[in-house]
Specification:
Helix content: under 10%
Number of strands: 2
Strand order of the largest sheet: 1-2
Low-confidence stretches: none
Length: 57
């Protein structure tokens, strides 16, 4: 089993509609929203988008 050091948590402030990770990009950070909801969107063939997941309080 992998051994990790102590968590390195940092409070960050996000802007409305801020892109956290684009499709195909490697994930570098994990977010634990405390006062907001973070959504995952999927772009349809016609260019429209649909929310496929949400996380937050």
């Amino acid at each position: 089993m992998a051994s990790f050091g102590p968590p390195q948590l940092e409070l960050v402030h996000l802007r409305t509609e801020q892109l956290l990770c684009d499709s195909g990009q490697r994930i570098h950070h994990v977010y634990f929203p405390t006062t907001a909801i973070i959504s995952m969107l999927s772009t349809m063939e016609d260019g429209s988008s649909v929310e496929i997941a949400a996380v937050g309080p």
